[in-house]
Amino acid sequence: MGVEGTLEYFSDLIKKTKRKKRKQFNTVNLKVTRIDCEGCALKIKKAISGLKGVKSVDVDMKTQKVTVTGFVEPKKVIAAAETTKKKVELWPYVPYTMVAHPYIAGAYDKKAPPNLVRKVDDRMTPLEEQYTTMFSDENPDACSIM
């Protein structure tokens, strides 16, 4: 086996080795119910920060929001947060200006933080659509009361 054979051997060896895909840097926002005290916040922080790849964990007790940043997957973060025996879900709220109809059924939530509504698909019935466009400024046939 000469130099050429050695080079081919190493070339084949490099091709065969699998390269691991690097995880992307993510920000995962969670809604965790019943964060009542600093002890609850510390318990959640400890459970999530134990995951591999977590860079920071921020707990906002007022809005019941947990923000996790790092090289993590949302499913693993949710599973780790659920070990605290609290109800956990992905952050469902967006600013009401980003939703076309923020007060349709399912979007308006009384427990939502100020200026936020649930992100829902815009599925209006034809009757609802008719009522919303009836008084629209964009509709030239709209009713205008002066």
Automatic annotation (TrEMBL):
Location of the HMA domain: 26-89
Keywords: Metal-binding
Xref: InterPro entries: HMA_dom, HMA_dom_sf
GO molecular function, one term: metal ion binding
Sequence intervals crossing the membrane: none
Domain of life (superkingdom): Eukaryota
PANTHER family recorded: COPPER TRANSPORT PROTEIN ATOX1-RELATED, HEAVY METAL-ASSOCIATED ISOPRENYLATED PLANT PROTEIN 24
Protein name: HMA domain-containing protein
Lineage: Eukaryota, Viridiplantae, Streptophyta, Embryophyta, Tracheophyta
